[in-house]
Design a protein that fits this description.
- This protein is an alpha/beta fold.
- It has a single domain, classed as TIM Barrel, CATH 3.20.20.70.
- 31% of the residues lie in helices and 20% in strands.
- The chain has an eight-stranded parallel beta sheet.
- The mean pLDDT is 93.
Length: 304
């Protein structure tokens, strides 16, 4: 039997990605900072850090702590705001030849809506990631931790744009399928599972506890389980991200049900990780005599 030609482009909802590997929002800046460090040919899209309606300074220092097998951060959505992004960053991103996914968040739904209205009129944006799950902002309740709040937020934003809408879910819930189904019912095109886990760090030098979001390889088993369960109970595509530090971990996420995978902490630690995963996917598909990654999504899982 002749060997099939491998095509790693993936179509998730209406969004075409050059490869199934994307950077996680937050570690990639606005998308243009790492061009001299990472080979963008192996990335499926550019994903910006989360933008808010107004410029945000973020949380005070210290706000990043190194753990034994991960990181804890409390950046607090530091960003230049939507208007400066459109003027200063978006023109360069348009020239990079990759789909641009803009992550949007904030403290109030009205502010998120205002951001979407401005961004939706800009050329060169392929999709929005609705960040409902950042654990590092001061608010009474994180939207993604309540299914009714998720439904309300996604429903409101869905009315404002026809672009592909990704709902970024929180792992800090009793049942991620409840919030995932709420996002799907409200009109989300894609689910992103997930975000950092809430954590606590004691700084012996400063003799003080700090709270933040935990990322890195330690969270992979929990995130992968979330993808596994979402795949069973929802019908829209899933981006699986969190703790992927190797080629095999990336493939495990696909086996669980992820149509695309995101890499964050380890993309910074290992700038060639996307290239390694890309080549590994090709070799694995060759062994199975399959031409597209979609043929093995959820291969070790079953829909209910």
């Amino acid at each position: 039997m002749a060997e099939k030609t491998i095509d790693l482009r993936v179509k998730i909802s209406r969004l075409w990605l050059d490869t199934p590997i994307i950077p996680a929002s937050g570690v990639f800046g606005y998308g243009d900072e790492l061009v001299d460090t990472i080979d963008y040919r192996f990335l499926g899209a550019i994903v910006t850090k989360t933008l808010t309606w107004t410029e945000t300074p973020g949380n005070p220092q210290p706000r990043i702590w190194e753990l034994e097998n991960g990181l804890m951060n409390s950046i607090g959505l530091q960003n230049i705001g939507v208007k400066r992004f459109c003027e200063e960053k978006l023109p360069q991103l348009r020239r990079m030849g990759k789909p641009v996914i803009v992550s949007v968040g904030g403290w109030k739904l009205d502010d998120i809506a205002k951001s979407i209205k401005i961004l939706d009129n800009q050329q060169g944006i392929s999709a929005f990631e609705l960040n409902l799950s950042c654990p590092n902002i001061k608010t009474k309740q994180i939207t993604a931790e309540n299914s009714a709040s998720v439904f309300k937020a996604v429903k409101a934003i869905r009315k404002l744009t026809r672009k592909t809408l990704i709902a970024k879910l929180s792992p800090n819930v009793a049942d991620i399928c409840e919030t995932g189904k709420a996002a799907e019912e409200a009109g989300a095109d894609i689910l992103c599972a997930g975000n950092t886990f809430k954590g606590l760090y004691y700084d012996w030098r400063l003799e003080k506890f700090y709270t933040g979001g935990i990322s890195g390889s330690m969270i992979f088993p929990m995130v992968c389980r979330g993808v596994f369960e979402l795949y069973k109970k929802t019908s829209i595509p899933i981006i699986g991200l969190g703790g992927i530090n190797s080629e095999k971990r990336a493939l495990e996420m696909v086996f669980a049900g992820a149509s695309a995978i995101g890499i964050g902490t380890h993309l910074v630690i290992m700038p060639n990780l996307a290239e390694r995963i890309y080549k590994f996917f090709i070799e694995y598909l060759k062994k199975l005599n399959k031409s597209r990654l979609s043929s093995i999504v959820g291969m070790k899982n079953e829909k209910e």
